[in-house]
Amino acid sequence: MKGELKGLLKEIISITIGILIALYINNWNEDRKDSNYITNISASIHKELSETREDIDKKIVQQRMLIDTLNFYRKDDQMSLDKVITKAKGIFIPSIRINSWKAIANSKIELMDYSTVSTLADIEEQKELLKIKSEKLLDYLFANYRKTGEEQKEFMQILMSEIISTETFLKESIDKIIKEGKSLEK
What is the rounded distance in angstroms from the CA atom of residue 18 to the CA atom of residue 107? Predict the structure, then answer.
């Protein structure tokens, strides 16, 4: 009976050790997969944010040119808003790319550093705010595109300035992530 008990105990210990080793290997493998995922998604997020930042820089220059053109023709009652916009070569709004962020936010957000998650969430909110401000600008322009008054031109300058302020905040948030150059991993 003692011999059977010893044999059974040895079997239980060897099975337990085998299970523990299998669990350790499985956890190690999952950690490795998560690390690879974060590395890849981090590179993708950084690429999108770099492209977004470049686009914002280009569009702000064009938007300031529109503001200057509006200011130049502010008192000219022969120049309607649509003519001023044509002179300035149009209205430009940057494209804010955050697809990779949305992908990880919907799946493995717990693997990311909290401050980075917070900054990326701010970028997403500012993207929505920029969209709203842009829509307001277009609504205003649609209702007033033939107007030539100084007040209409000044109000459009204000709307454009508001868009630029949102883009500037976006740039600062993007720079916070890009310049730190850190991984998004915890």
Answer: 32
